[in-house]
Amino acid sequence: MSIAALREKPPTADTDPRWPAIVSRDPAVDGQFFYSVRTTGVYCRPSCGSRRASPKNVAFHETAADAERAGFRPCKRCKPDQASLAERNLELVTAACRVLETAETTPTLEQLAGQFDTSPYHFHRVFKSVTGLTPRQYASAHRERRVRERLVDDVSVTDAIFDAGYNSNSRFYERADDVLGMTPTEFRDGGSNAAIRFAVGECSLGAILVACSARGVCAILIGNDPDALARDLQDQFPQATLIGGDREFEALVARVVGFVEAPSLGLDLPLDVRGTAFQRRVWEALRDIPCGETASYSDVALRIGAPKSARAVARACAANVLAVAIPCHRVVRSDGGLSGYRWGVERKRVLLEQEANG
Questions:
Q1: Calpha distance 273→74 (Å, rounded)
Q2: Sign of torsion over alpha carbons 203, 208, 211, 216
Q3: Strand order in the sheet with 241-244
Q4: What are the percentages of helix, strand and coil residues in the chain, rounded to 5?
Q5: Which is catalytic among the residues 97, 212, 317, 328?
Q6: ∠ CA 328-90-340 to the nearest 5 degrees?
Q7: pLDDT digits over 120-152, tens only?
């Protein structure tokens, strides 16, 4: 465009790559820049809900201070000179998490909300949107994590249970099998009394290891080196007794291989799923994604009622050790692109192509 043309028609904000964020009121870019409106004399966050200004009256600023130096005042609606709502919510939830982690007894929702001068309903909604868990679920997950850590420290089972914040042994033992996948003593000893059968097969993705505890399939691992897969299994259960599968067990491996090659066949196996409360919720949501379809990390976060936990969903996918049975390969980026996969992005691509082709 010539200089003369520019003089006739000066460029407007809608040619700037930041303009779409203003149009969509995208909170994800709040703090990255601000915009001012010449006709009103105010500056705003990109997510501001005020009436959209004409692009010809908009200018961009790197910081709030830059906008104020240019003579603009902060918008009274989005308050760009103060911490954003997301930042305030994160600060509130972070403080609440510290309370839950240090309290001798778990406070009620009303007590927590009262400490932060907000209503129980609002506090509950904000806490879940940030963490993906309710306050009670977070407190429970924290106790579960603490008892696992203390058992690894080789303290007595009773000390580990009480140090983690449980008021009695019976309350923990009611859930010990779900939390640890075995008795507390067995967990402390690295699964010393656990017998895990396993076998390695071959499929179009490479070597595949299937392992079963008494509760069900506890690992499906994929890789290039069968020995490396066996070592990975041993690392997960360092003191467990690993037993090579017999002919009957190898038939189970054949079922898993058959599912990999022909996903439409389905895979109905008892699973020994071990993880935190949040991870288990994510993994359950993954199993609800139909074969041949995909969902984004944000989609999964919405499905479990934690719309701001897309990154935590991604971490839960990465922690999954039950390849194909818990189909983390069906989770993609928001733009449809393939992101990281525990067993390699190329394997993820192959799995999705096989499912799409029926």
A1: 51
A2: negative
A3: 217-223, 206-212, 195-203, 241-244
A4: 50, 15, 40
A5: 328
A6: 20
A7: 999 998 888 777 778 888 877 777 666 555 554
Which residue do the tokens 């009274």 mark?
76
- Is the distance from CB of 295 to CB of 331 less than 8 angstroms? yes
What number of other Cβ atoms are within 10 A of residue 167's Cβ? 12
Transcribe 19-82 into DSSP letters.
HHHHHTT-GGGBTTBEEEETTTTEEE-TT--SPPPPGGGEEEESSHHHHHHTT-EE-TTT-TTS
Report the sign of the C-alpha dihedral through residues 255, 260, 263, 268, in that order.
positive
* Phi, psi (deg, nearest 5) at residue 243: -120, 125
For residue 74, the cross-strand partners are 43
pLDDT category of residue 177 using cuts at 50, 70 and 90? low
pLDDT in tens, 276-330: 778 888 998 998 998 889 999 989 988 888 777 888 889 899 989 998 889 999 9
Q: Which residues pair with 312 in a beta bridge?
A: none
pLDDT tens by residue, 232-250: 888 877 767 888 878 778 8
Spatial distance between the Cα atoms of 41 and 74, rounded to a whole number of angstroms: 9
Residue 42's Cβ-count burial label (10 Å; 0-12, 13-18, 19+) is buried
The token pair at 101 is 């982690």
Burial class (CB in 10 A: 0-12, 13-18, 19+), 235: exposed
DSSP string, 87-128: HHHHHHHHHHHHHHHH-SSPPPHHHHHHHTTS-HHHHHHHHH
From the candidates 44, 48, 75, 317, which is the catalytic residue?
Answer: 44
Q: How many CB atoms within 10 Å of residue 117?
A: 8
Q: Is 328 a catalytic residue?
A: yes
Half-sphere exposure of 278 (CA within 13 A, CB side): 27
